Here is the input.
Amino acid sequence: QGAPCTDFDMAYFHSYAHVGIHEEMIKDRVRTETYRTAIMQHQSSIAGKVVVDVGCGTGILSIFCAQAGAKRVYAVDASDIAVQANEVVKANNLSETIIVLHGRVEDVEIDEEVDVIISEWMGYMLLYESMLGSVITARDRWLKPGGLILPSSATLYMAPITHSDRYSESIDFWRNVYGIDMSAMLPLAKQCAFEEPCVETIVGENVLTWPHVVKQVDCHTITLHELESVTTNYKFKSMMRAPLHGFAFWFDVEFSGPALAGTNNHAPSSLISNHPVEGQQRKKRANPNEALVLSTAPEDPPTHWQQTVLYFYDPIEVEQDQLIEGSVTLSQSKENRRFMNIHLEYASGGRSFVKESVMR
Amino acid sequence: QGAPCTDFDMAYFHSYAHVGIHEEMIKDRVRTETYRTAIMQHQSSIAGKVVVDVGCGTGILSIFCAQAGAKRVYAVDASDIAVQANEVVKANNLSETIIVLHGRVEDVEIDEEVDVIISEWMGYMLLYESMLGSVITARDRWLKPGGLILPSSATLYMAPITHSDRYSESIDFWRNVYGIDMSAMLPLAKQCAFEEPCVETIVGENVLTWPHVVKQVDCHTITLHELESVTTNYKFKSMMRAPLHGFAFWFDVEFSGPALAGTNNHAPSSLISNHPVEGQQRKKRANPNEALVLSTAPEDPPTHWQQTVLYFYDPIEVEQDQLIEGSVTLSQSKENRRFMNIHLEYASGGRSFVKESVMR
Here is the structure.
C-alpha cells in the first residue's frame, strides 16, 4: 500500500518522538481548542461511530472523540510517541474505546470501515511535511462513502508584504556595525537570511493587498497525485506605495461536513463579500456554511504555525496600484518528499525575477 | 601540529559559515562592547604591535585592534566566514594591516612572534566547543614571552537553583491538559526536557546561594591536557527553603595583562569581599585589579550565552541551611571533542543521585 517507508520518513517520524513538539502543538490553544470545538460541533456524527485519528501524537484528539461518544477510535501514529499515547489511553481507562496503532496508515490494519477521519496534518505553508498524503491514504483505505473528514477542506493563501524592520535588522545592519562599514557581508547575509522560507509572525499592516488563493484542498476528493506539485498564477495590485520585501503564505482549514452540509440556507456568499460593513475589515473569505475555521492569517490570533515568508534578496519599490504578478510552484522534493521545493517567479515595474528555494 | 582536523571539526567550522551566528554574536552588545573597551584599555600594549585574532569570524575584533593602532593583525579562522572577513578588510582599506588566514591555528603559518592574542573563544558553560584549545595552540606557537592575552583569565561558576515556573511549564503541564490527565507522559517529558543541558535565562531570584568556582582558567598557563577533563567537588548551604530544581552554570572572563599588572596597589581583596555595602548585592568575586570583566552571571545584563542549567528529573525539597553537595566532571567527548560530557553527582537530605548528560 502506498509509498515505501524511506530513511527520510523514519527521520520525520523520529522528530515527533520528542515531547517538546507535542507540548508546543497542544499549548497552541487556537489549534487545540478549535479542534475540540469542531469535534463537539460534530458530536452527532461522532457519537456511536468509528473514528480514525491520523497522526494521533499524544492522543489528545482521540480522547476528545472518545469524550464526544465515539464507539471506537483508531489512533494511528508511526512515531514512537504512539507508545506514550497508549499509556495515556490506559491511564484514562479508555482502552476499550481507543485502539492505538503504532505504524504508518499505509501499513497498519483496521478491519472495519470508519465513519470519521480526524487529523491535524497541516504543516508550514499548509503542505510542508506532506502529511496530507496519510489522510488521503486513510480515507481511501477505510472511510465509508459519505463519511466525515475533519478538517474537511483547506485553503493556502499568499500575499505581497512589506517588512522594512525585518529586512533592516538582518541586512542593513551590516552597513554600520559599531561604526564599521561591513557592507561586504551583504551578499552572504542576504543569502543566509533569505535563501530559505522564514517561519515568522507578520501583522496585517505588513500585507500590501488582498491575498490570492494558491490552492484549495477538498479533503474528500484531493488525490496524492495532485499534491506532488501545485502551481498558481497570481496578480496583485498593491494598495500602497511601499518597498515590496516578498510574499507571505498562510492557510486556514474548515470543519464542515454532513452535520452542516444540509443547512446551507444562509445568504449567498456574494451578498456577504460585496457588502463589507463600513469601518470593519472585510472578511477575506466568505463562509456561507458558517463552518468552524482554524485560521493562521496574519490578522487572526497567532498560532504555532505563524506565517511563512519568502523574502526577496532585494526589495522592489512599488507604487500604489502597481501590478505584481507571476507564479509559484510548490512541489514535493524528489529526493525527500517531506521537503518542499518552491519555484517563485515575480515581476513588477518592468523587471522580472525567479527565486528557487527549499523548505527542509 | 596539534590534533588532526576531524569531520566533527569540519562540521563545527561549517556552523560558523552562516551569517546568522555572527549577527547574533555581534548584536550581543555586552560581549562586543566589552571586547572593544578591553582593546582600547590595552591600547598601549596593542599600538605598533603584532596581534593574532583566534577565530576572527567576520573580523570585527581585528578591526578594533587595527583602530587601536596595531601594526599587523593576523585574523585566523578555519570557517569559510574568513572569506567574508577578507572582503570586509579590503572594503575598509585595512589590507595593509590585517592579514586574514583561512585555516586552523594548528595549520596556518605566521612567520613572526606576536605580542597580543585576542580571541572570543567562550562557549556555553565556558568550555563547550573546546575553542580555548585553539587559543592555547596559538599562544604556544607564536606568543612572545610576556605577551598579552585578551581575555587573560576565565572563571566558570555553578550554583543550585529553584525554578518552579520552568519546571511546571514543561512537566506539571501534562497533569491537566484541557481537563485530561496526561501524567503518563511525565517520564518521557522529563527526559525530553531535561536530559540535556538547557541554555536559558535565569535571574538572581532563582539562585539559592553563592556560587561555587568550578574552574579558573589562566590563559597564560592553561594546558590542552587540563581541558580534557575538569572535576570539582562542591558544597552549598541553601539560603532558603525551596524546591531545588538543578544547577545553573555561568562564567566571566577578565581582561587584564601587562598594562595593568604593575598597578595592583588597591586594597586587598579580603577587605572588599568581607565588607559588603549595606543593601547592595555583594560582589561575588573580588577584582583587586579593577580589570574589565565580561560577565554572564544571572544578576548581570543578559548576553547571548544566557546561563546553562542542568535540571534534575525530580526536584528536591530543601530547607534553609540544608547542605547540597557532590561533584561535577566536564570532559571532552572522546567521540567528538566539540561535545561535552557532564557527570553530575549530587546529594542532599540523605539521598544521592547521579546524572549523566552530553552537550552536543
Remarks:
- Residues 29-41 of chain B form the longest helix (13 residues).
- Residues 259-286 of chain B have pLDDT under 50 and may be disordered.
